[in-house]
Request: fold
Amino acid sequence: MEHPILFISFILEKLGLPIPHGPVGDTLLAKIVSPHLTYTWLVMAFLIIVPKLTMGKMEMIPGKGQNFWEMIIGGLEGFMAENMGEEGARMMFPMLTTFAFYILTANMIGLMPGFMSPTSNINITLGCTLIVFTTTHILGLKFHGVKYIKHFMGPIPWLIPLMFPIEVISHLARILSLSIRLFGNIMAKETLLGILFLLAGAFFAPLPILFLGVFVSIVQALVFVLLSILYFSGSMEHAH
Amino acid sequence: MSESRKELMRLLGDFSTIGIALAASIFIGIGVGYFLDHKVFEGKTAPWFTLIFLGFGIAAGFKNLYMLTKRKDL
Reply:
C-alpha cells in the first residue's frame, strides 16, 4: 500500500528525480531515491545533528543535555555489561548502541504524518540482521579459533551427522526470525495507520494505534538489541 | 528502570522469539532442501532432499524449544 504523503519523496519528485511508485525502483537512481533510503538518511542526519546540538561542550558537571545522553548511554552500557560481561560489552558497545538508536528512531519516525519508517522495508531489516549474523560468527572465530566448530557439533560424538545440520539450520533461522519480526511489526503498524487515517482520520481513529505504535517501536528496538546481545554472548562463551 | 522491570523486558524479548523461531527453522529447512533438489541436482532427486531437510528443520525448531526449557536462570 502506498503512503498518503511522503514529503521527502514529494520534494525530490518536484526536483525531477525518478521516485519509484512500487517498493523498489528499476534503475540505480530510482533505487537510491526510494523512500526507505531517503528516510534512512533523514534518520542518520537526525542522529548526527541532534546529539551535537543538545549535548553542547562536555563538562565535568553535566548540564541538562549532557545529563540526558549520559543517562541513556550509561543505561545501555550497564544493560550490555550485565548480559555479555565487561569485555564483550566494551567491544560490541558502539555497534549495538548504533543499532539501538537507529532502529528506535527509525521506528518512531513513522508515527508522524509525512514520514515513513525505513524499517518497514525488509531490505533495511535484513541488512541489519546480516550484520549481526556475520559479527556473531566472526566473534566466535575470534574467541575460539578453529574450535568454534564445536558449537555446531552437540555433546555426543556419534550424533554429529544429525546435530550439525540442525545447528546450522537453527543459526540460519535466526536471520529469518530477527529480520521478519522487526519488519512485520513495523510494516503492520504503518499499514494499519495508513488505512485508519484514510478511513476515519477526521474522527481520530488512528489514535489508539499511534499509542500502540510507540510501545511497539520501543519494544522492537529493545528486542533487536537484546537478541543481538544474546547471540553475541552465546558465540563468545564455551561450547556446552 | 527497576530490577524486576528490566528482568521482565529481558524475558519478554526471549519468549517473544519462541513461535517465530520455530516457524523460521522449518522454512529454512524446506528452503535448503528445495535448493538442493532443484538447483544443485536439477530435479533428479526431487522430493527426497526437501523431505529430509524438512525433518532437520522441524528437529531444529524443537531443539530450540528444548534448549529454552533447559535454561538455568529461569
